[in-house]
Amino acid sequence: MKNKRLAVILGFLAVLAVGAAIYSSLGSKGSSSDSGSSKTAKVGVLQYVSHPSLDLIYKGIQDGLAAEGYKGDQLKIDFMNAEGDQSKVSTMSKQLVSNGNDVLVGIATPSAQGLAAATKDKPIVMGAITDPVGANLVKNLEQPGGNITGVSDHNPAQQQLDLIQKLTPNVKTIGALYSSSEDNSKTQVEEFKALAEKAGYKVEEYSVPSTNEIASTMNVMTGKVDAIWIPIDNTIASAFATVVSSNQEAKKPIYPSATAMVEEGGLASVVVDQYDLGVATGKMAAKILKGTKPADTPVEIFNTGKSVINKKNAQVLGITIPEDVLKDAGQVIE
C-alpha cells in the first residue's frame, strides 16, 4: 500500500516537473522574442555645420530610417553638430563611437572623415559626400571594402554650366570660389574648370582657408570676373551671407550649388535634392542595421539635379530669364 502511494506521489511530482520545464521553456522563448522585438537600434549622427541644406539631409535620414521601420521605441538617434569646428569633429566622433551606437552617420565630408579616423570597426554611412574616393573614405565606389559606405552627391557641373550659358550668355570669365580646407571642393573645381574651358570660358580659382577671408577675396574677385561659381562647399555655404553682401556693389551673378544659397542671394543653379540624399542615407543605414556589410554595399550616387531660379534676384541684376528655362525649372523663387 505504501509502495503504491509512493508511486502515485512520485508520478505526480514527475508531471509537475515536466510541466514546470515546459512552462519555463515557453516563458524563456517568449521573453527572448519580446526582447528581440523591443531592441532599440542606436544610430549616431555627426553633422559638420548648421545649414539649411545639411539640415534637410538630417531630416531625410530620419525619414529614411522610419520608412524602414526604425522609429519611435525602435530607434534612438545620438545627434551631434560640430558647428564647423574641426576639433569638435574629432572629439564628437570619438564620443559617438564610445557611446555604443550600432551605426554611425556622417553628414558632409569632414564629419565622415572624423568618424573614419575614430573607428575601423563600427559601420559608417556617409551622407552627401561628393568624392568618397578622393576623401580617402572608400577604396572603390562599387566595392568600398571597409567599414564605410553611403551616398555621394556628385555635383552636376555640366548642367550648371549649361544654365550659365542660357542665363548669362555674355559671361566670359568665371570665378570659382571655394575652401582650400575641403578635399571635395578642389575636385569639383577641377571638373568644372575642364568643362568650362572646353566650352570657351576662362575660369579663375579663388580659394580661402577659412570664412574670415571670404570678404577680402570677394572684393578682389568681383573686379576680375563676370560671374561667380561655387561648388558644394560647407565652409562657403556657412558664410554665404558674406558672399552676397560683398557682391552688393559689383552685382555679379552668383551660381552656387545648393538651393538654400540660391534662396539667400544666388542667381540660379542646378542642384541635387538634399532631402532625397538624406532619405537614401537613412535607408542605407537601416540596411546596415539589418545585417548588410558596408564593405559589400556600393556607394549610391546622385549626379543629376533640377534647376533653381531666383527670379527676384534676376530682376535686380537686370537679367531676363528665358521662358523655357522657367518652364523647366524645379523651383522658381519669386
From TrEMBL:
Give the InterPro entries listed for this entry.
ABC_SBP_TrpX-like (IPR047776), ABC_transpt-TYRBP-like (IPR007487), Peripla_BP_I (IPR028082)
Source organism superkingdom: Bacteria
A Pfam family it matches: ABC_sub_bind
Q: Which PANTHER family match?
A: ABC TRANSPORTER, SUBSTRATE-BINDING LIPOPROTEIN, ABC TRANSPORTER, SUBSTRATE-BINDING LIPOPROTEIN-RELATED
What name appears for this protein in its UniProt entry?
Peptide ABC transporter substrate-binding protein
